[in-house]
Amino acid sequence: AQSVTQLGSHVSVSEGALVLLRCNYSSSVPPYLFWYVQYPNQGLQLLLKYTSAATLVKGINGFEAEFKKSETSFHLTKPSAHMSDAAEYFCALSGGYNKLIFGAGTRLAVHP
Amino acid sequence: DTAVSQTPKYLVTQMGNDKSIKCEQNLGHDTMYWYKQDSKKFLKIMFSYNNKELIINETVPNRFSPKSPDKAHLNLHINSLELGDSAVYFCASSQFSTGTGGFNQQFFGPGTRLTVL
Half-sphere exposure of residue A47, counting CA atoms within 13 Å on the CB side? Predict the structure, then answer.
């Protein structure tokens, strides 16, 4: 069965520090992987996606993620955190019929 | 201009009531979805319709009944509401894909927060 595991339900960083949000997946077929961001009381916005092209994927707002098949990982990074990055981040995997299988989410807090 | 819209945004109701949530998309997509986000923020697919045909039906109580009058609309009707139904319900849309040959980006609505008292 396909699944997504996000390590760390809460991550706290200082403004300007590196952001690293971890995601591991399990899939018997080559996966499509995604990171979504959810700001408080809002819907989901796509940050970036991996669709079997380049393993290093760049997204919006300075985020990027690297697909590592050997580690079954798709970690999200940003070199320098900004206060506006504080949100809930979801890693997701594509399932049959285009459905998304989500991880449990990681809440990112950014403090001054 | 809104791509995927949901009404209402907030819904507060008593246990045992029946309620509906409506979703509309103006992106020209042929596939729509309902996801449930529980109190711990966990998101899970409930249903998906393609061209008014149900194609995904996860293990959801049969008190939940989706209805798609046309490609641009997908409504969710919930009978005999229970406390555990309290959640945020997200609608999404995309072009159809079986998922094996490619993936089409899903666009999400703003969510409907359902509170059952």
Answer: 27
Q: Which residues of chain A have pLDDT under 50?
A: none
Residue A59 touches partner B, C-beta closer than 8 Å? no
**A37 chain-B contacts, CB cut-off 8 A:** none
Contacts of B62 (CB under 8 A, 6+ apart): none
User: Of A25, A33, A99, A106, which to mutate for an interface test with B (greatest number of B Cβ within 10 Å)?
Assistant: A99
DSSP three-state, residue B30: coil
What is the per-residue pLDDT across B54-69, written as a single tens digit (0 to 9) for each?
A: 888 887 899 999 999 9
Beta bridge partners of B57: B47
Helix (H, G, I), strand (E, B) or coil at A84: helix
Residue B92 contacts residue B4 (beta carbons within 8 Å): yes
- Nearest chain A CA: its distance from B79 CA (Å): 25
